Amino acid sequence: MRPIAVSTLAVTVLLAAATPAVATAPTAPREPSLTGSVRLKTTTEAELDFTIDARGVDQAARGTFRIRHKEGGEEASFTGEVDCLQVGGQVAVMTGRVTWASDPRMPLGVRIGLTVHDQGRHDRLGASWQLAHMGDLPPCTGMAPMSETASGNFTVRG
Question: Is 26 inside any structural domain?
Fold first, then answer.
């Protein structure tokens, strides 16, 4: 009986050695991001639309943003390039410089700041381009996200 036990053990060891190991690739850490499009709630007939695609960390962030404001038969929009992104939990602060504007009152090159609180389909947004006339904002500076969204969704990933 002893030879059978040794043979069984030898076969088991050989099978275990011949079975290829399943290698799992390490998952890369997810890059912080702020993405999506929303329309803000307003107390007037104004339409305020925001689209953001920002990825990266601090001043190594990149991406684009677009803002459109339509009210009383007039419409203005501007686009820009992201120059900073910080994410903490479900809140993201993004800044970027305006690269194109349909309204000459929005100077090209001015830095604006957007802060988003991702709350599912009930996000909040704070925008600091109203302060552009006071000088350049520092990177990753934004206002508290006080404005509610009427439609759309932002996604913040840290």
Answer: no
